[in-house]
Design a protein that fits this description.
- This protein is of the alpha/beta class.
- The protein has one domain: P-loop containing nucleotide triphosphate hydrolases (Rossmann fold).
- Helix content is 42%, strand content 13%.
- It binds adenosine-3'-5'-diphosphate (A3P).
- Belongs to the sulfotransferase 1 family.
Length: 300
């Protein structure tokens, strides 16, 4: 396992030879992270090389609208859950629960990532036709977000998780992904050492969390900072908090009719993980949909 990055990912690993991001890549530090694939250090964070072009395209082309909702996370911190909850909260008047798109599509299809789907499929996709509020998600650190997000009045929700749980969840997930076909599974101790040094996908985790925490302190009306553990402890309160932050508060009538409990049950691990769409198929041909639902517990 190469730990320091004097060598760079070969140009053969970068898909498009005309791609501008390739030139920049050659000037940046790169290394194998967790033995699975090449990562590049950009503005202090480790990004997958294979997503670098999409990340730069996101920065270059994404034009935020005031009504946009951006869900930001470190991988394995509760992204899937937050996507489902947010989608159900803001669309509760659009779909009756029996016709909710999440019954037949995974949360990652319904709420796409900037870097894995939206800007990976096309360099500059037309996103104007998407009805408001548009919901996107990302693992990009706050400092690397497109300026238009940071300068607009749109809403960002960040969710983080106890780093020990996040590490275990991510390490097991990476083993299952097997991105590097020739890569040997990385021993847990070695992966943990790298994690503690910040050398892990989208890390360092502390800087990632601090970036969004400081953004929340500077602008609490634009950035909501959540913890996975708090959602597990009191999902009703968390749903109310998200709804109020997004400007979709639950009326007293809705509360009396159990609208919050309905969303909480619908988005629960127990419900989502047993849907056919989440038990079968895979995400972008890389990972089984079921891998997004492992245990869903705190303190693993
Ligand atoms: P574990 O591996 O600890 O079980 P992400 O969505 O960011 O990839 O995070 C995945 C983690 O969230 C996994 O944690 C997964 O089990 C858990 N998770 C997925 N859906 C959930 C849900 N509806 N409720 C609670 N936890 C959920």
């Amino acid at each position: 396992m190469e730990k320091k990055a004097d060598s760079k990912c070969s140009s053969a690993q970068v898909q498009d030879p005309k791609d501008e991001s390739q030139e920049l890549l050659q000037t940046l530090e790169q290394q194998l992270v967790w033995n699975s694939s090449w990562f590049v250090k950009y503005d202090g964070f480790w990004f997958p090389v294979r997503l670098f072009k999409a990340i730069l395209s996101t920065r270059k082309y994404f034009k935020a609208k005031e009504t946009d909702i951006i869900l930001s996370t470190m991988p394995k911190s509760g992204t899937t859950w937050l996507k489902a909850l947010t989608f159900c909260i803001v669309n509760r008047d659009v779909y009756i629960i029996d016709e909710n798109p999440l019954l037949t599509a995974t949360p990652h299809t319904v709420v796409p990532f900037f870097e894995y789907n939206t800007y990976a499929e096309q360099e500059n996709p037309d996103l104007e036709h998407i009805p408001s509020p548009r919901i996107f998600s990302t693992h990009i650190s706050f400092n690397v977000l497109p300026n238009s997000i940071r300068e607009s009045n749109c809403r960002i929700i960040y969710i983080c998780k106890n780093p020990l749980d996040q590490f275990i969840s991510h390490w097991l997930f990476m083993l299952e992904m097997k991105i590097g076909k020739d890569a040997k599974p990385l021993a847990m101790d070695e992966a943990f050492d790298m994690f503690c040094q910040g050398n892990h996908p989208f890390g360092p985790f502390w800087a990632h969390m601090l970036g969004y925490w400081n953004a929340h302190l500077n602008s609490p009306q634009n950035v909501l900072f959540l913890k996975y553990e708090d959602l597990k402890e009191d999902i009703t309160l968390s749903i109310k908090k998200i709804a109020e932050f997004l400007g979709f508060p639950f009326s007293l009538d809705e509360q009396k009719q159990g609208a919050i409990q309905q969303i909480s049950r619908f988005c629960s691990f127990e419900h989502l993980s047993t849907l056919e769409v989440n038990k079968n198929g895979n995400f972008l041909g890389m990972v089984k949909n079921s891998s997004f639902f492992r245990k869903g517990e705190v303190g693993d």
